[in-house]
Amino acid sequence: MKKLMLSLFIAFGISACSLNDDNNYIDCGVNTSVAFTGFPFLCNYSVKTQQNTAAVAVIGSQEKMNELFIKHENSCPVASDPNIDFTKQYLVSIFAGVKPTSGYAIKITSIVENNCEIIVNYYEKAPVTGENVTQNPTYPSDFVLIPKTAKGFIFVKTNENSDNIVIGSYDSQCTTADCQKFFQINDYNILKFLNVAAGQYDFGQYKYTPTIKRGDYTLLLKTVPAEILALKGQTKTYGTPNAAGVYFELRQGAVVTKVYIDNNDTQDQSAEIKAFKKVIQEKITSLK
Hints:
This protein is mostly beta strands and 288 residues long. It is 12% helix and 35% strand. It has four helices and 19 strands. A hairpin with a 3-residue loop joins strand 14 and strand 15. The longest helix is centred in the C-terminal third of the chain and has 17 residues, at 271-287.
């Protein structure tokens, strides 16, 4: 892991970004996890001036928010709450700078704190072999909400596998908030998506809360039946379309495979598919 000082986009009155001085050692105690919430920023805001170089921003007031960003009408299929209570929260923003094509990303994976500082861990992704990219410049970014703090911030770049699995319990008759349960399982954390709407499974438009846990993606991948792995980028439904069931999405590099499995044991479900459905249902229950 490499500890980086990114160029500071905006400070909020205290030391907003710091780097340990190895010549002046201070015992800061143990690191503990900081709860944060993923914020679907681009659904409701745009950046006034795109950052051509890597940068970070820690926003602590509506005034600073208005200086840096433009609020617009919700551009995502599902409306998300664009409001931030700056009496209780900060918006932590990270920008990768200009990239030559699509296919790049930057992602905050975990946040910890000790007696001295807040440490924001993140990784960057570049286009992978076979990925369909557009030949236009892009500006990858990520945004999360954290509780207010008086501590300074350090941003640490890590190496992570961007492959992941999304599992969920879908229901076409879902009409109440959070009646569907969806989780993204990475090898570095587990994300719980909040208030997923029926049939709206573009997960970039939802807020999420993380659980920091390593290795779950690798373990769950071992249980996936060969007939699902063989789909390689296709979408398949077992049973009755639009019924209630379990959702499975596998992202490996540029390949995205999606599967819907009816809760009822239908004739097109092999013994392996039925067993895998049970694995997903038990996993969802354990994560609720």
